[in-house]
Amino acid sequence: MDALTLLTQRRSMARLIFPGPDEAVLDQILRAGMRAPDHGALRPWEFVVAQGAGLDKLSSLFEEAAITDKEPIQSIARAAKAPYRAPLIILVIARTKPHEKVPCIEQVISAGCAVQAMQMAAVAQGFQGIWRTGKWAYHSLVRDAFHLKSEDAIVGFLYIGTPECPISPPLEGDIKQYVKHL
Length: 182
Ligand SMILES: Cc1cc2nc3c(=O)[nH]c(=O)nc-3n(C[C@H](O)[C@H](O)[C@H](O)COP(=O)(O)O)c2cc1C
Prior knowledge:
Mean pLDDT: 97
CATH architecture: 3-Layer(aba) Sandwich
Order of helices and strands: HEHEHHEHEHEH
Number of strands: 5
CATH topology: NADH Oxidase
Number of helices: 7
Strand content: 15-25%
Radius of gyration: 17 Å
Distance between the termini: 34 Å
Bound molecules: flavin mononucleotide
Helix content: 40-55%
């Protein structure tokens, strides 16, 4: 797939099954994340790879968060199941650093760019993915488990795997509505 097709035809895929990326594919995905635009070369991100036992740990964490919130039993079960929607998840954390020229917002944006780059690197290698947050990304129990400072953020859980079904083409938006020329 050429680069322009990858970018202009990009879709997300929520239905992800095994196999997930092997080590070599994952390495390229993470390298793509590391090449996100990054003001001041701060590398204001951390990529936490979860598969197998890692997904079990995320599952327990989400379940515990749902129990803490006194969610109904079905929601607790849904929280526990969430991480198993793909063979692999990359949790992307914006780990911001005080910097006189690079405000936190720019650092969080960089971490967001890393998510997009990694999703595209997965697609370029024959896999699919979806960028999710959901309430657990903002839950204090989850934030604490990953030792986030108040200015840090979980910018996403990037679910990656093999698409379960063919992916449909994107809906073409009316570009004119979103673009102005000065
Ligand atoms: C920061 C961020 C958080 C998101 N969180 C979720 C989410 O929790 N659940 C979800 O279904 N989609 C979420 N999405 C949207 C999907 O990644 C995806 O873009 C959406 O399903 C539309 O599909 P498309 O990418 O094929 O257009 C999120 C996107 C972003 C940028």
